[in-house]
Amino acid sequence: MKVYGGKNIKYQDKLAEKRRRVWILKILFFIGLSAAIVAFILYLLFFSGWLEIKGVSISGLDKISNDDFNRKINERLNSKWLGLVGYQRNVLVFDRDAFRAEALAAFPEIKEIFVNKEPPHTLNIDVVERTTAGVWCFASGCKYFDEEGAIWGEAARSSGFLILVIEDMRQNIRTLDRELLGSIMLISRRLKEDDIFINKFVMPNNFIGDFSAFTSAGYELLFSMDSNIENQIKSLEIFLAEKKNDFDFDPQYIDLRINGRIYFK
């Protein structure tokens, strides 16, 4: 049996304690070094101005004012993490997708937005606005619309064939019926090719599929969503071609709602 002296045990304890201190110091050193590196990176990114957005170039604005659009950009640039760090002012960190979603929600007249970053200090923003197809007048007021059915803004109630006007007499309707809009756009486009210009389309309050188109020549055209719109247009073209040389032909209305038949007065 071997016997160890007390001095040897104390020496081993001191050696183990020394190793523990060295190990703890190494850990603290690496923690401090990591914290310093992180602090230095944060300083470079968010406090030094090295990659701060200092210029924003915007193109494509027409319907939207520059001031309104700039306010939306500044809301994004001035947003802060934990209320302290203005992280969105960094050109690398700037969230293009978030800004795009915010701008599209704020400005329905915008169809698409493209944001390009040009480090170290510039954002280039290209805006594609919607093309106005006409004015849709609800009971609550008139709005602009495009061929995709998006509506925006406040429009003056008017009539005339220079811009497509739809008078929607139905109550509590505030969105567009895409199928109805498609039919109206088809009618307007095809009749314009035949030199027939529409002052306005009218959906009555009791709309169940029938609607009217009032022409610049003074007569009314009656259409129905329950019948094929393309066939109704073709029937009208054939009918008007037959009446072309009839100088006494001066109708008040032409009813195209029944397939294969035309009634007029």
What does this structure look like?
The chain crosses the membrane at residues 27-51. The chain is of the alpha/beta class and 265 residues long. It folds into 3 domains: 8-48; 55-129, Roll (Ubiquitin-like (UB roll)), CATH 3.10.20.310; 134-264, 3-Layer(aba) Sandwich (Rossmann fold). Helices cover 36% and strands 24% of the residues. It contains 5 helices and 12 strands. The protein has helices at 6-47, 66-77, 96-106, 178-193, 229-242; strands at residues 55-59, 110-118, 122-129, 134-138, 141-145, 151-155, 164-168, 198-203, 210-215, 220-224, 253-255, 263-264. A 9-stranded mixed beta sheet has the order 6-5-4-7-8-9-10-11-12, covered by helices on one side. The radius of gyration is 35 Å and the shape is elongated. 18% of the residues are buried.
Radius of gyration equals 35 Å
How many runs of DSSP E, i.e. beta strands? Answer: 12
Amount of beta strand = 15-25%
Question: What structural class should be given to the helix and strand makeup?
Answer: alpha/beta
Overall CATH class of the largest domain: Alpha Beta
Shape: elongated
What's the main sheet like? 9 strands, mixed
The strand order across the widest sheet is 6-5-4-7-8-9-10-11-12
- In terms of per-residue confidence, which ranges show pLDDT below 50 for 5 or more consecutive residues? none
Q: How many domain units?
A: 3
Individual helix count: 5
Q: Based on the coordinates given, report the CATH architecture of the largest domain.
A: 3-Layer(aba) Sandwich
Give the topology string: H per helix, E per strand.
HEHHEEEEEEHEEEHEE
The span between the termini is 129 Å
CATH fold naming of the largest domain: Rossmann fold
Overall pLDDT, averaged? 85
Share of residues in helices: 25-40%
